[in-house]
Here is the input.
Amino acid sequence: MKVKHNTFPYPVLSAFTDDYNDSFFDLDVNVTNEYGTLWLNYTFHLFNDELTNLVKEQQAMFLIHLECSQTTYRNAITLEETKGKIELDASLIKGVLDVNGFLITAERIMNYTNKQFSDWYQSMKFTLNKGSTLAVAQMSEVVLSENKDDFKNIQSIINIRRSKKQSYMTIDYSSDKIIIALPVESYEIYAQYAKTDFKEVIITNVVFPALVHVFTKIEHQYEEFEDNRWYQVIKHILETSGDDITMMGDRGAESYVIVQKMLRDPVFKALNAIKLFSEGSED
Here is the structure.
């Protein structure tokens, strides 16, 4: 959405108007991909005492307008903080995302004036309705990279198979894939429910502990696995999301936390699946 110049019947702080002296308003944004989740990181810059006080007194608030012409996606998000991040739905946006930043009134304001008004407006006062625009930032165009689904990459390096010899689940990471072997009875249950609503329960009980075990090994001897394909895939996923595979555990983030991010919060998904099943049974 491109804001048209000179469309306001009252003073507005922006780069395309000269309604204010010695004042500034802008918005910095960038999009990051953290384990398959897109985040819009934003920072508003506001330099004007009266407008800043309106924000502090909750008479004004920030607004970010998002628009993707390729998918016709539009959304407006009101914010109270000058800095933060917003989760984006990757299925709704593609190509280029237009980002506009505004400062708007949170309520009706009577007799609005500002010491930094330009000479033309110095003696004037204005009544502004709720939602009126006070400041406009320069529009940003964010190019969205076409990344592969991280979870599909994880699936490509994990093989769950049946074992007639083992009584308990075992994990082998000596080849290009991480092999999870399940006893016959356990495997038959897995095969029956892997593609049902219980998939998340299976991930939490089978894949999650297996990856935590593998990550624990990486913490102490990552050089040993550098030639394995599963290691290279995991390393790429972590680097794309801003983490270093050599800096885990004692040297950085806990491995079990990183695994949960990679699997996109499997514990919550599993518990939620149980909850939904329980509620369905009660009906």
